[in-house]
Each structure stands twice: as C-alpha cells, then as structure tokens.
Amino acid sequence: MLGKFFQKPDKEQGERVPPGQHLAKGFPVLTYGATPQVNIEEWEFRVWGSAKPAVFTWSEFMALPQHEFTADFHCVTRWSKLDVKWTGVKVTDFMKLIELEPETAHVMEHCYGDYTTNIAIEDFVREENFFAVQLFGEPLPAEHGGPLRLVVPHLYAWKSAKWINGLEFLKKEELGFWERNGYHRRGEPWAEERYSGRF
C-alpha cells in the first residue's frame, strides 16, 4: 500500500509533514455516509447562535473577494498532500459581515448531510483559513466537498468540513460528530491530536 498509493517524504519534504504521516500520490476521498448532491440554486449558508442571524445565497457568497491559496492538507488517517491549490473566500473576509455577541468562543460547522464539527473561534478566524470553491482550477468536486468546503490547514482535515452550509456560533464548547465519537477536540497534526483518549 505504501508504494502504490503513498510514499515517505524526502528530506526536504519531511519538515512539512507531521509525525506519523505519509504523502499521498493522489488526493484520497474519505467520506462518512453518502455524498450530498447540492443544487446551487437552492444552496444557502446560515449563521446563527451567538451571532446576528444571517442567510447567504450562492450568488451573495460568491460576490465576496476570492483568492488563490496553496496549502498542505493533513488527514487524521495518516496521509498528507502538499501544495494543494484552491480558490475561495477568506474566513476573515466573510467574518467582516458577521456580528458576534460578546464571549463567543466556539463555532459548530454544519453541513449538508447533517455532518458537524467544532472549532475554537481563535482557530477559525486565522488569516490562512478559507472557504474553497475550486480545486486545482476546477469547480470543487462533490466528493471533495463541493460546492463549498471550509479549509483549515493547521488542523487535521476533518475540521475542514465538506459541503458546509452553516456556522453556529457558541459561547461554550460543544462537540461535533467525530469529536463525540472519539476524535480529539482540536486536532493539531504536529501534536498528533488524533483521538480524545476517552475510549
């Protein structure tokens, strides 16, 4: 398996690959459950919780400034892909439209297909995070989270929720799907925060 689908990083790449990871030769697709097929005309993105409620259509979201990003991608299942090229909207640009209540400290990412994952607000609003709409210059495929996914390069990829369609802002931490099922609350690759230790 290692030689066919994965390879060990060379010395130069090794500084970019977290402990316990191998480099993927392709871009693996790992999904729990069916892949949602989302109609752009019906797509909407909701904000609620400890924030002023808001709803964005696809055209409204796409009207935000778009940028190109190159980021390394690390999956908790022990593979990494370097220099993934995306196009999308910076989280920091999107957050300029959102009014948060005082003491907001966490975010629950909600997705088509009812997947959820939690993230601390300080991890969410980092400058390098973005909502991706293209992958390697093409519209983001459904299997990789299209039409829209969050990308949080500094955490394991389950925090980069596919098919994202809403953000619930919270004053106290709540756990998402994988976090309730034994994954680490934060998921930092360089610390190998894979699992919670609760099971």
Automatic annotation (TrEMBL):
InterPro entries: OxRdtase_Mopterin-bd_dom (IPR000572), OxRdtase_Mopterin-bd_sf (IPR036374)
Residue numbers spanned by region Disordered: 1-22
Organism domain of life: Bacteria
Pfam family of the protein (one): Oxidored_molyb
Domain named Oxidoreductase molybdopterin-binding: residues: 33-178
Protein name, entry field: Oxidoreductase molybdopterin binding protein
Source organism phylogeny: Bacteria, Bacillati, Cyanobacteriota, Cyanophyceae, Nostocales
